[in-house]
Model the fold of this input.
Amino acid sequence: MNETDKKIINFLRHSGRASVTEIAETLGLTRATVRSRMERLQESGQILGYSVVLKSDAETRPVRGVMMIEIAGMGTERIVRQLSNFADVTAIHTTNGRWDLIVELATDTLEEFDKLLSQLRQVKDIKSSETSLLLSTRKETRMVR
Done:
């Protein structure tokens, strides 16, 4: 992927509905260049798809946070399965470094968030955790698979 491809992708992240003509004019490229590069990026799997972020997606579940989890022993898969059963757990990521998992959480109120944290801390073999509330979102790019 070269700089031109990166510029096209960056433009699409902010204006996913832009036409090839609009992208070409804004970036100072020809329509043929933009069209061929977008097709190549899709064929190579660099661009997996296009998505829309609804206002309702951003407005729901206003209390959000991330919980970093350290696991005792070899129970990662079991813990991931258990965490997946919580409706307020919106994503689970494995990672390296100090934390074994990063879990995204979302609730409607702080009281519900507190209750969720209490429940998650009772999951067997979670050695330690650290949770941070997300105060504001400055940029978010969502990908639909």
Remarks:
- Residues 88 and 106 are 5 Å apart (CA to CA).
